[in-house]
């Protein structure tokens, strides 16, 4: 008998914004956990197109496309009691224009240090670990 389970991968992009040793996180409306800002691609969007659209939708700022730099891709089990679902998060830094403001999609924004690692999902925790090891997150 073969194993009929199918692994599902949720493909996301995330904006890594660090200031003063803290990383910007956002709690979407109706969620109980904070995430690195970003989200899932729509259709045939590239990582850059997804990142720019998601950050504008969530935080009302415009990323500067020529400053976008890939910092890593992470995979971990999805947050919550769901088996067989993995999140793949491609992370990018970028400069922005505008004022960071939570949109109607976001209930709360916060700047997290490494001590706040348990307040984010498993895939984000991997990013926190790398940033802390590199001396970027305090």
Automatic annotation (TrEMBL):
InterPro entries: NUDIX_hydrolase-like_dom_sf (IPR015797), NUDIX_hydrolase_CS (IPR020084), NUDIX_hydrolase_dom (IPR000086). Pfam families: NUDIX. It comes from the Bacteria. Residues 1-133 form the Nudix hydrolase domain. This is ADP-ribose pyrophosphatase YjhB (NUDIX family). It comes from Nocardia bhagyanarayanae. GO terms for molecular function: hydrolase activity. Keywords: Hydrolase. CDD domains: NUDIX_Hydrolase.
């Amino acid at each position: 008998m073969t194993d009929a389970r199918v692994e599902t991968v949720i493909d996301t992009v995330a904006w890594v914004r660090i200031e003063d040793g803290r990383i910007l996180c956002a709690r979407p409306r109706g969620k109980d956990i904070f995430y690195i800002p970003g989200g899932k691609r729509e259709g045939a969007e590239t990582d850059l197109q997804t990142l720019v659209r998601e950050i504008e939708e969530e935080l009302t700022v415009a990323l500067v496309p020529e400053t976008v730099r890939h910092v890593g891709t992470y995979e971990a089990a999805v947050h919550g009691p769901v088996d067989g679902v993995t999140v793949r998060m491609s992370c990018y830094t970028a400069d922005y224009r505008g004022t960071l403001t939570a949109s109607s999609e976001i209930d709360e924004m916060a700047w997290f240090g490494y001590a706040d690692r348990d307040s984010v999902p498993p895939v984000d925790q991997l990013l926190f670990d790398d940033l802390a090891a590199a001396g970027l997150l305090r």
